[in-house]
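It is worth pausing here to work through a concrete case rather than discussing structure prediction in the abstract. The textbook approach is simple: state the sequence, then state the predicted structure, then interpret. We follow exactly that order.
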Amino acid sequence: MKVFAGDIGGTKTLLQIADVAEGHYQVIYEQRFESQRYDDFLPLAQNFLASAPHSAVAAIEDACIAVAGPVASTKAGQHAKVTNLPWQIEARSLAATLHLPRLLLINDFQAIGHAVDALGSEDFVVLQAGKCQPRAPRIIIGAGTGLGVAQMIWQAGRYHIIPSEGGHADFAPADETQMALLRYMQSNLSPCMDVQEPPHVSYDRILCGPGLVQIYKFLQAQTTREAAAYDAAALSAAASTDPVARAALDLFVSIYGAQAGNLALFNLADGGVYVAGGIAPKILPYMQAGGFMRAFCAKGRMAGLMAAMPVSIITNAKVGVMGAVRAAAGL
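Step two, the predicted structure:
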């Protein structure tokens, strides 16, 4: 069967038409879009389908779009708001406008869960081999434009993926430096983004590209040097020569590992902890340097439990759309 699938993120959107047969699929047509260049998802999807081979578009039997944000289901159907974009998506009206027979909306990390068991060994970097327990709970956590989280629970002969907005949980500082970072973030969040007093500092604000930049600015403010105008990618590249940039990456990685460990404790994730998202593969040497796993395992009396959990980074950049294809095909 031919399916239309997409993975919507705050930075990029990847769309595919794929032919699925016996659990495997072949990509017929694919395009990557810069999400922030569009005011809405509809014109982007229309451009994609208009440029795709007509025979492939006409043969589409099902569709699934993975969304970086919560998906709600009501009697009127599914709808979603992309967390870091002004996009509102309503499944029924979108399917009708695009002339699709059906359209399913799922959370983007729910989509990753659908793809985990279809990945090969080349799609992972192991941080901790652990002792994988078959059918035990798994978690997925991933930093990108924001922080995504999902759970995988074995039930009725297969894993069911439970979407989550756990990235928006309160940031819990682990030491004096992180407490100072919390105060810095509270004083620097834009009022238009947070109406509470004090502003809500979530892991989603810190474990993301803009959050890495904020960590750098926080550390730089404690020195006498003028802060460089880095974005997240430039900051990572500068870490080999700029000690403050290196310290920012080390702090980011430590907070990342601690929160991954928190989620693993909540779920007893003896089936595996999967680190997804766009950032981890780009800072792989820092993820492998030891700070992530030290923070992950630093859970006091539960340290031994943590040391037995398998932890891997997913390096396949198309895992989200792969999962959306599999969800559309009912796999």
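Step three, interpretation. Residues 250 and 291 are 7 Å apart (CA to CA). The first helix runs from residue 41 to 51.
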